[in-house]
Amino acid sequence: MQLRILFFLLFSAVLAGCTAEADSSAAATPPSAQPIDVAQVLYARYSPEYTFTTRLESPQQIELRPRVSGVIESVEFTEGSVVKKGDLLFRIDPRPFAAEVRRLEAELSRTKAALQQAQSEAKRARRLQGRDAMSEEQAESRIFLASQRRAEVASVEAALEAARLNLEFTEVRAPIAGQTSNAFITAGNNVQAGQSVLTSLVATDRLYAYFDVDERTWNEAFDAVDASGRTQARLQLAGNDAQSYQGEIDFIDNRIDPLTGTLRVRAAFTADSRSLRPGAFARISLAASDARPRVLVPDRAVGTDLKSRFVLVVNADNVLEYRRVELGDRAGELRVIESGLTPQDRIAVNGPARVGPGMPVTPRDVVIDQQGLTLLEQELAAEPSA
């Protein structure tokens, strides 16, 4: 029995020694390096974007009204269609106006005949007066009558011209190229000249977006902007953030509104897409005129602790270092770093999701998407810090 106890104690001692030796060997083995995506920060000229809300407007908006009164005979366009300047839209019953033209044409023939007779009599009166065969008073009466008949002809000619215009106005044509609304008044209804609205017409080849910029923002970010058309503007429609439309600033008001402290600005867009419609809600984005060199990193590379924001930097020994940073604007998937990083730094692209400061890593080199930025590699040596 004692022999069995002694054997058991000896076996336990040997087992404990083996376990301690294994633990010591494990402690002496350094931890394996974690493979992570590593990239050099972007260093580029960056202009922060400002966004303003507005509604699109057409440069030409017309409520189409008739120039003559009458009864609508026919509607000659497809409602909601795009028409060209001069296209026939409505036809007003032309018969009363055609009858007036014929009456005045007959009246013009009568007055011309009367004028011809008066001129002949005036000519005869001058010959008779020259032979003392007619009194001066009678001769002057015939001459004045010829002048009167000449005035009557001119009056009828003017009335005939107006009647022909009225007959022409029975065909209501598009004064501009654009898109029509529906017909507000249909065939068989009576319309009043200059009062009845037949339809509305808006020019759609070019659209305006007016927006107000507060005085402080304008002076800080857009002081160098002018209305020459060189400043680009980007438009996004409500509910369609995936697509943007490019335009340009073509108007800046001549004064700041003293009541609101804002400046009226207009961006113009070519309506290449049917999605751009007058009255549509839109967001206008403008880049500030002063582009400065900035360090940018993916927004997902930024971590947060209890006190501040930080980025994990990969040092020369491929060990992660904690680097406190101050954040600037967000530019898409990128984040501007105001301070804390240099243009030469390499960072953990995916942030502190599975790694932390002090950990050795195996870098997998990747490239950060530039998103249209112009890199400033030639200035890296001259700009040692952000």
Task: Provide the descriptors you would attach to this structure in a database record.
Helix Hairpins, Elongation Factor Tu (Ef-tu), domain 3, conserved putative lor/sdh protein from methanococcus maripaludis s2 fold, 3 domains, 386 residues, 23 strands, 6-stranded antiparallel beta sheet, 6-stranded antiparallel barrel, alpha+beta, disordered C terminus
Give a structural overview.
The chain is of the alpha+beta class. It has helices at about 1-30, 95-130, 135-170, 215-220, and strands at about 35-40, 40-45, 50-55, 60-65, 70-75, 80-85, 90, 170-175, 180, 190, 200, 205-215, 230-235, 240-255, 260-270, 280-285, 290-300, 300-305, 310-315, 320-330, 335-340, 345-350, 360-365. A hairpin with a 2-residue loop joins β13 and β14 (about 240-255). The two termini are about 80 Å apart. The model is unreliable at about 20-30 and about 380-385 (pLDDT under 50).
